[in-house]
Amino acid sequence: MNKIWAFMIFFGMGVAAITKKIDIVNDVLIKNTQDAVMFSIGLTGIMSVWLGLMNIAKKSGLIDKIGKIMSPFMGILFPDIPKNHPAMSAMVMNMAANMFGAGNSATALGLKAMEDLQNLNSNKRKATNAMCMFLVINMSSIQLVPLSVLKIRVDTGSVNPTEIIGTSLVATTVSTIVGILSCKILERKS
Amino acid sequence: MINLLQFISIMMLPIMITMILGHGMIKKIDIYETFVEGAKEGFKTSIRIMPYLIAIFLAIGIFKDSGALYLLIKIFSPITKALGIPKEVLPLVFMRPVSGSGALGVVSDLLNTYGPDSFIGRVSSTMMGSSETIFYTMAIYFGAIGIKESRHTLLAAIISHIGAVVASVWICKYIF
């Protein structure tokens, strides 16, 4: 992360200087950092809602139930996590929210899942296999209905805006499988 | 079709919330107090991820607005050409892992230029629907819990992204 961050900033500023657009740095400095603050403040609401709901689900035993139902599937992906651990249900619910395009709820549930996973981690600085797997699945996106893309297609006058849902599903399935396999292979080496 | 799908998507969160609250009531839990008790942690988490968000938004902003992304595309174009990826969609291939809203802007441009029902239009729509932002997700998820060593996460995510890109192109070639 360290190197990538430095690369993005130095390379970006270098290109800006050569193309005589160095003033964009000043704009970004003000605008993008403000966006970041607004985003995290904005996330507080939905974050609190899901933490509240998950607290209810934990006390009512719903979390154990979800964990049990999904355990055949989740057990393969996350062999190191105990079946009834809260992390399992938070991850299941994060994936459900992701599938239906509820981005902010998914982020809130995902952060909750990461905290639960961290409780099982012996080295708090280093990511566990389960964390890597969870993030890779998250980033390979299992969205069922790409609503924002559909909207652009409708707006630009597509004859058949929904025809890309099937192709997206195929592509996203391929990418998720590729992600899971590369995680399983890479985790043995690192 | 769109309306039905939209309906299901809209119904998802209300259904999840009803399930949790309903189950809590059946089990005779004081759902109001329990909710508030859990919600207290929300602010802490948001504040914890804020510095990571600021760092990543800053880097992405400079990288994107300076045109550095487009220079990178030029450097990588021989490789992507070998994979059969049309050069028109390259900006999307590189923008997608970096910024979600940026990528949506690129898709919008492509559909306006080439038309939504062209090959380029279909490939870019498929690609947008099948991949996710990488850097920002990694920054906040690991940042929130203080992980410093992300191990193989980035490499696996990039491989998975390449999988999505190649699969998008091939499935569109095959179907349409």
Instruction: Identify the overall geometry of chain B.
Output: globular
How big is the Rg of chain A?
20 Å
Low-confidence stretches of chain B: none
Q: Strand fraction band of chain B?
A: under 5%
Shape of chain A: globular
Largest interface: A-B, 111 and 104 residues
Counting structural domains of chain B, the number is: 2
Main sheet properties of chain A: none
**What proportion strand of chain A?**
under 5%
Largest β-sheet summary of chain B: none
From the helix content, strand content and strand pairing of chain A, which structural class follows? mainly alpha
Number of extended strands of chain B: 0
Which ranges of chain A are low-confidence, i.e. pLDDT below 50, for 5 or more consecutive residues? Answer: none
> First CA to last CA of chain A: what distance?
16 Å
Radius of gyration of chain B: 21 Å
The number of distinct structural domains of chain A comes to 2
Helix-strand string of chain A: HHHHHHHH
Question: What is the tally of helical segments of chain B?
Answer: 9
Helix-strand topology string of chain B = HHHHHHHHH
The tally of strands of chain A reads 0
In whole angstroms, the N-to-C terminal distance of chain B is 20 Å
